[in-house]
Design a protein that fits this description.
This protein is 45% helix and 11% strand. It is of the alpha/beta class. A hairpin with a 2-residue loop joins strand 6 (220-222) and strand 7. It is globular and about 75 Å long.
């Protein structure tokens, strides 16, 4: 609870400066983020997620941040992504939109193949002293597509969404600051679309650029330069919000490495060992491990560079098989993932309440414990989650969560005292 003195201090100092930082994670990550944000919107009193000071989005998080900055509440995003019904003004945005083959890219690369092959043959025949089939035909690799899926669908669909009344596809016309981070392919530098000099780019095009993961989507041309996924530089880019003077950053990261030794009960689609999941499981685990380690390093650095600011991170647990093994092409799985993130975040708010309550209080925010603990609350209609595991192992895991909460609380206060 916030004391009257704290409330008075908040009123005197003006509106709390709060920002949001959203990491990437593909269509699956976006749905997890929507479920998490919906839980925060329901459970936090004193903050409006559509009226923050600064929004920062990277990759899939860019589309979620752009939607929030455009006044689309998390519950409405849930309907757009998961369960839009006939008669609603928004067209659904199924993950299939992100998976349409890049036929235009395929055609362009195929057209470049004959001259490349001819050049390779000429190189091989005219340099008898340096005959090497692999070296001569190396140039043929230039005909390989730079991406599998068509990212233009992202631009088109979000341009349509942001053209509705009360919304804008122009950074300069938004009420609050929005930054969507991409990476310049030629220089490797991070670019903050929405910052001065970069705010003339349509928001939908910036979303496409920020989400252009190399290998999956072709680089996006903007102003004669090519841009790819902003997560290549950093995972969260929370520093973008901190540089704007924000004192509290709510951060969501949907991708964490999976620890197959932790689950109390086996998941229906989880192999006994990750190696049994083949290349997709190995690549997913590798990618998640890299970005999680990099993000952790960044958070530790921010605590030193911005000691008067708070960053509260929400992400899946290391034993969350529901997130790691969800099939994003399945409608029921998408519904289940959104609900799973919603319930997991409410549970986390309860488990971390002793750590989070004083942090939130400094920024005029309180936890609505009646909502946090309400067993009847759901995000997606008709969704039922697996019953919580029972028995000695479940008790042990609950104890571990509680001790982890206590450890974080002690570290936080020790850092404050130092």
């Amino acid at each position: 609870m916030i004391s009257q003195e704290q409330k008075s201090r908040t009123r005197q100092s003006g509106r709390a400066r709060i920002g949001l930082a959203m990491a990437g994670g593909g269509p699956l990550g976006a749905m997890y983020e929507v479920g998490t944000l919906a839980a925060l919107a329901d459970c936090l009193d004193g903050v409006d997620l559509n009226d923050l000071d600064t929004y920062v989005g990277v990759s899939a998080g860019a589309l979620v941040a752009a939607a929030l900055a455009n006044g689309i509440p998390p519950a409405e995003m849930c309907r757009i992504f998961i369960e839009t019904e006939p008669g609603e003004r928004e067209r659904p945005l199924p993950p299939g939109v992100f998976m349409r083959p890049a036929f235009g890219e395929f055609a362009r690369r195929l057209a470049s193949l004959p001259p490349l092959i001819a050049g390779a043959i000429w190189q091989y025949l005219t340099h008898p002293g340096q005959r090497n089939v692999f070296a001569a035909f190396e140039r043929v690799t230039r005909a390989l597509p730079t991406g599998i899926f068509d990212g233009n669908q992202i631009d088109e669909r979000f341009a349509e969404t942001f053209s509705n009344p009360g919304r804008s596809n122009d950074f300069r016309k938004l009420r609050r600051k929005l930054f969507l981070v991409a990476t310049d392919l030629e220089s490797g530098k991070a670019v903050k679309f929405g910052a001065p000099g970069w705010d003339n780019v349509p928001i939908s095009k910036a979303v496409q650029a920020s989400a252009a993961l190399p290998g999956l989507y072709p680089p996006v041309e903007i102003g004669g330069r090519y841009y790819v996924d902003g997560a290549l530089k950093k995972t969260l880019h929370a520093s973008v919000a901190l540089e704007q003077g924000v004192k509290l950053v709510l951060a969501v990261n949907p991708l964490v490495p999976y620890d197959s030794d932790l689950p109390v009960t086996p998941h229906a689609h989880a192999p006994r060992r990750l190696i049994e999941g083949g290349l997709p499981a190995v690549l997913s685990q590798t990618f998640r491990s890299i970005i999680r380690s990099r993000m952790q390093s960044g958070l530790e650095r921010y605590s030193v560079e911005y000691p008067d600011a708070d960053i509260v991170l929400f992400e899946p647990n290391r034993d969350d098989a529901e997130v790691f093994f969800t099939n994003i092409f399945s409608y029921s799985s998408r519904r289940r993932l959104g609900e799973h993130a919603y319930q997991k975040t409410r549970k986390e708010l309860f488990l971390r309440r002793h750590e989070l309550a004083p942090i939130f209080a400094r920024h005029g925010i309180t936890l609505k414990l009646d909502v946090v603990t309400d067993p009847a609350r759901h995000l997606v209609r008709g969704t039922r989650l697996r019953p919580l595991p029972r028995g000695p192992m479940a008790v042990q895991r609950q104890l571990e969560h509680t001790l982890g909460d206590l450890e974080r609380w002690l570290k936080h206060h020790a850092a404050r005292a130092a």
